[in-house]
Amino acid sequence: MTSPTELEVEWRALRTTTAAMFVMILLVAFESLAVTTAMPTVATVLDGAHLYQLAFAGAIAAGIVGMVVGGAWCDRSGPRTPLTLACAAFAAGLAVAALTPSMEVLVAGRLLQGLGGGAINVCLYVIVGRLYPGPLHPRIFAAFSAAWVLPSIVGPLVAGIVTEHASWRWVFGGAALLAVPVWFALQPGLREVREIAGAADPRARRRLARAVTVSLAMLGLGLSAQLFAPWSWLVAVGCLALTLVAVRGLLPAGVLRAAHGLPAVITVRAFVNGAFFGAQVYIPYLLTERYGLSATAAGVGLTTAALTWSGAAWVQGRLGARLTHRLAVQVGTVIVATAIALVLAALLVLDGPVPVVVAWTCAGAGMGLTFARLSVLTLHYSEPGNQGANTSALSIADSFGSSGTIAITGLVFAAFTATRAPFAACLAVTLTLGLVAVVLSGRVASAPAPRAGAET
Q1: How far is CA 144 from CA 94, 163, 328, 331, in A?
Q2: Distance between CA 252 and CA 207 in Å, rounded?
Q3: Is residue 85 within 8 Å of 247, Cβ to Cβ?
Q4: DSSP alpha helix (H) spans, 193-348
Q5: Burial of 43 (0-12, 13-18, 19+ CB in 10 A)
Q6: What's the Cα-to-Cα distance from 294 to each of 46, 137, 433, 438, 451, rounded to whole Å?
Q7: Is 443 in contact with 366 (CB distance < 8 Å)?
Q8: Sign of CA dihedral 284, 287, 292, 297
Q9: 388-438: per-residue pLDDT in tens?
Q10: Is 410:398 a contact under the CB 8 Å cutoff?
């Protein structure tokens, strides 16, 4: 067993690699958020309002293909080559978007960027699994959480300043330029990663076909809210059904029934992501529409949630094995579900903005505990030969949970607008998802061994 002193020495030895991975995730996260601020200007300048939704949904859909391809490639030969190509695709997509003469070309750049970004995330998880000792995993995933959360605090502000005082093209071009030195900074760590000579996966083509199917179905689901009822619901249900059928071949066996261990980890991740992000997109809207807050004031709730997410992730990282994985996930999911319930209660009973902000601040802390430990558990249940496949499955669960829920709540919001209760209806949907995550959270531990003499 590695002593605490030895772990600290190893952690310091890996600080350059840790910092490079932190910045790489920061760039991917920044682009996914900053584009939201810049895109209205982009659509106006390029006369591309008709492709506005596709610029977002296309990148998410392409990311699913990148996750699957990157994961399979890492399992077959190691993360060095796929990460290099993923970084190249990410930077090239950003460069295309920065130099684009039209909205059509920008969408193509976003597809390439999404493809690379999806693969980058999986490759970095594999590097953690092969380079960092298990006791350091909570700490490194705490850093990853901070890298995802920090852009939500400063990303929109930075993107707004750049768009207003320089050019929206630098929102894309600046990140493309930064990706190059970060890739070089990763090279010493990549040389230390254990390479494996795995056999080619005979199911690779089938998995790729399924990934493309899931991507197209998710794209259709995201665009369904733009259609008129009842077609919007028919398209959404069809796309959701197609996604569930196709995604089965991309996930470990037992995910759809939340079997103990890794399957439940991935299932809980999808549900808690859907609950949190499905509710979060309506928090600023609720604060501005219902309570008349300014856009800046309404953003306070998201900022405080981002801070508590980062803080809770740091705490669980420092606690390490003193906080069991199962307990961290259980407590985190309970906090998220309770926070959504409190927002709903504030809307229906208390009817004030302050309880909403306080509740959502608590929700961030719940995600900080849960999100990082589910990542740790994924690697805990993985071997070098399937780390890529399992982490890509986890990333697909992230995308499916959040994007799918946002699309469904968009339809629910439109359906309940006439009843003057659209926010309550959407929060009820996300609360249901949160409660499912709570119920399943205890299954993230391995199934208990049968008692002696019991039937198996």
Answers
A1: 22, 27, 17, 20
A2: 12
A3: no
A4: 204-224, 231-247, 262-280, 283-289, 295-298, 300-319, 325-345
A5: middle
A6: 29, 40, 30, 34, 60
A7: no
A8: negative
A9: 788 888 888 888 888 788 878 878 887 887 777 888 898 999 999 999 999
A10: no
